[in-house]
Amino acid sequence: MFVLVEMVDTVRIPPWQFERKLNDSIDEELNKKLANKVMYNVGLCICLFDITKLEDAYVFPGDGASHTKVHFRYVVFHPFLDEILIGKIKGCSPEGVHVSLGFFDDILIPPESLQQPAKFDEAEQVWVWEYETEEGAHDLYMDIGEEVRFRVVDESFVDTSPTGPSSAEAASSSEELPKKEAPYTLMGSISEPGLGLLSWWTSS
Amino acid sequence: MARGARPARGPAGVLQAPGVHRGDPGVHRGARSRLWGVRRGAGSRSFSAWSSACAGDPRRRGGEDMEVKDANAALLSNYEVFQLLTDLKEQRKESGKNKHSSGQQNLNTITYETLKYISKTPCKHQSPEIVREFLTAMKSHKLTKAEKLQLLNHRPVTAVEIQLMVEESEERLTEEQIEALLHTVTSILPAGPEAEQQQNASDDVAMDEEDPA
Question: Which portions of the sequence form the region Disordered (chain A)?
């Protein structure tokens, strides 16, 4: 679920923090910059793991702050393909089932990856697995708050950095940006035995 | 200045701020603020040159962009992340004062949520010795690193879960091997918080210290 990513960055320490230990200031600055943010093609950054190397600090003309090049490792949430994860159902919509891990929310299980046959109950806005046994069909509801085990089948990164002024004409034709895209989404699947609500598979 | 080791310095050296120049920033040692004081007359020129150098061509911005050296340096188990975040929380609690500044809010949120998530998994009760013992015991089963990591993080108790985590388990493992694997996993890894009630039924001697009354 979590990986270690090695990165290099220049950290700026303002002069009023010079009395603090450099390592502490750098830890704080890096966490301030990266924690809880999604890096394009890398994943959701959690927290700093350690600093591997500190290069010399420079002071530039016109700016009293020191700039230090830091080599460090960061803990990033980036599940690998086909990894099994357990999350909570946040809600259902015609697009599929939305699952959340608490710290990461943008997980979608599209309708074709649900246990088949599945149908969307419009009245209750919930997806249902029509489980057939010899006795007849059981309707297994995927209610909000239930824990599900799912497999990660796809991930997509969207670059949400602001566009420059050149695209201002395109943007002004529509009132606002149409919708806020999540920078990092995961697609899940629960179409295998063992996947889906934990309560479906616990032996009683 | 005819020192060949410092290519950035030359007749026009004053216009190129050190560190901004691509090349070896290590050539300059420490802050050279005293040199700027010497070149009084050129002071204003160097400032504007520096700011234009920064705002201009990104190629000239040397070490100023963040760079990812290795996006997959190592896989971390949930237990390791749990340990790291718990230690971080302790440290921040001790140093007290600046936790609530707006800059730290993101770190607070993500550590709280991630800790909350991992605390509900069996990883909470693991320790470095348990993990080491688990990995030694796993050597005989010939599983890939990713499979062992999933077993460590999830602690499966049924054969169907093993089949999910181990690729092509029908071909690679016989039924007895799956049973043996399950037995190794459940005996070495401590049970999670909710699984304690389910453990009562099985005859495994519980590794957990709490007494699930």
Answer: 158-178
